[in-house]
Amino acid sequence: MDVMADSSSAEPEPHRTAIPGVHQARGRRRPSGEPPPLPRALGRSGRFWIVVMAILAVFIVVLAGFQIGNSLERGEDAFVRWFAGMRTTWLTAVVRRVNVLASPVVPRVLGWGTILALLVVRRWRHLVVFVGVTLIAVWLTSHLAQLTGRPRPLGVTILGSWRGPSFPSRPLVALGGSLMGITYTLVVPGRPRELAKRASWTLLAALGFAELYLGQFHPTDLLFGLVLGLALPVVAYRLETPNAIFPVTYRKGRAAHLDLSGARGAAIRQAIRDQLGVTILEIKPFGLEGSGGSSPSTRRPTCAPTAGTSWGARSCTAPSRTRSRTTPSGGSPSTRTTCSG
Asked: What predicted TM-score, i.e. pTM, was given to this entire model?
């Protein structure tokens, strides 16, 4: 790792260990009050889903506190009857096949398959978040169904099997949670993940159309089911398993080896500058094959000039190689640095 010393302070602070031949800047008080070097960014989609969940929560409170539920339900029943009036023999056969996605077997197979895959790749944090989001979604769905006790659409022939209250759509919640879990825990970021998201949205849209066409759910049942199935996983994975800290990757080598470039590299540089007064120029991993659970790296500081030498004459390409465990949060490992000149 290359380190460029800050010339703003010639002497290190009394409580800091001096590094021979390296200019050290004055450190900053910890905590500094700045945001973490690797923030858990929700992104625009994450903030969008939080706003949608807040709006729907307010909508539920309004329905419970004011007498507008009956008018809304009559309007939705009329809409479902109108929509069911478009049924044809061939379209009904196709929609029945699509409605297989509503079977509880499908999300169950996807969920257990995801758990087994995460165990194989040893992605423990993603596994904990996936199980936690699934349990929270099941709990919310069950309690909302018991709280509302909403009947199925009235005045329309319901095709296919159904069970329990209609609010929210349990199949959409279950399928959405499973598909988002696969997308954020097993699919690498970038184009593959974008394609996985589009495929998931297509399947969820097809299932929603099928449930409405078959007369099994009201439009608001589908809307709430879709929000629970998508918003909870997206927000949870963005907060608890951000790509900058817990990347989904299938590169060869041990899973414990961390990427020391990008945001994590910048965080390490900033932490070493704050704590040691040394500015990092380059971070180079080495010896990964025998490093076990560590991420060893070499560091090269820009050295302070000594008597009889100039900056241009000094060579600072030989730091001592240190094996140090780099934490996922971007904190800098302890290091021992030497300069030759």
From this structure: 0.66
